[in-house]
Design a protein that fits this description.
alpha+beta; Deoxyuridine 5'-Triphosphate Nucleotidohydrolase, Chain A; 5-stranded antiparallel sheet; about 240 residues
Length: about 240
């Protein structure tokens, strides 16, 4: 198994690849095999052309597309408050041949901002659709992400031989092409039984404020009780 170079990936983008070489694995041969149908290993459905020429080494750089989460949007920026989750699909769709698999990694620059990534890892051959990730702001400050900056790195590898995908769903014939499908496939619930919120995090400054407030409250109560105890009109 060897990582694909940017030049090899470009060839699988345009002109692309065909199911003709994978007749025993393609689940819709009547549409794909010997029909001239071309797949494109990575492409942005919203772009004017198929060209994807953003790489970091051998990794394809991917970006935030549609998302779910209690965050704020300001132009091209997404603002994630402390303790908030962001679930998103990539802007790009991947359409892997049956002899290529992939691994998804976080951009180190983004993770160094204090974001914890979930649902990263291996992408099986034959997968077709948007990739997904969930991030959590573990800091006590808001984190600002530019949607034009790459957030994920996708490394593609050529396998020794083609293999059938190991999916519960057939992504080759029924691609994961909307965020609703991604949520259903991941059983993602926007009303989870347990979720961290910004109230779960306390800064040192907030902690000092709470201590001072409690001390002030106890001192006030003690002074009131002492006044009543020393006043003959209010015997205890």
């Amino acid at each position: 198994m060897s990582d694909l170079t940017p030049d090899a990936i470009r060839q699988l983008i345009d002109p692309g690849w065909r199911c003709d070489a994978f007749q025993g694995l393609c689940t819709v041969p009547q549409l794909h095999v010997n029909t001239g149908f071309e797949h494109h290993i990575v492409y942005n459905p919203g772009a004017a052309n198929l060209a994807h020429d953003e790489f970091e080494g051998n990794a394809v750089v991917l970006h935030i597309g549609d998302y779910r989460g209690k965050i704020h949007e300001n132009g091209k920026n997404l603002i994630i408050p402390p303790g908030r989750f962001l679930f998103f699909i990539t802007q790009e769709i991947v359409d892997l041949p049956f002899d290529v698999d992939g691994n998804l990694f976080m951009n180190p620059r983004v993770s160094n901002l204090g974001l914890q990534f979930f649902t990263l890892g291996h992408v099986d051959p034959g997968f077709h659709g948007f990739l997904t990730a969930t991030i959590l702001n573990t800091t006590d400050r808001r984190v600002i992400l530019d949607r034009h900056d790459g957030i994920l790195y996708f490394v593609l590898s050529r396998m020794e031989k083609p293999m059938a995908p190991n999916f519960r769903s057939d992504f080759h014939s029924m691609p994961q092409d909307t965020i609703q499908k991604a949520q259903a496939n991941l059983s993602y619930n926007t009303r989870t039984a347990f979720a961290l919120t910004s109230e779960s995090f306390v800064t040192r400054k907030e902690l000092y404020g709470y201590v001072i407030l409690l001390l002030t409250l106890f001192g006030t109560i003690f002074a009131i009780l002492q006044y009543f105890a020393s006043n003959p009109k209010f015997p205890f």
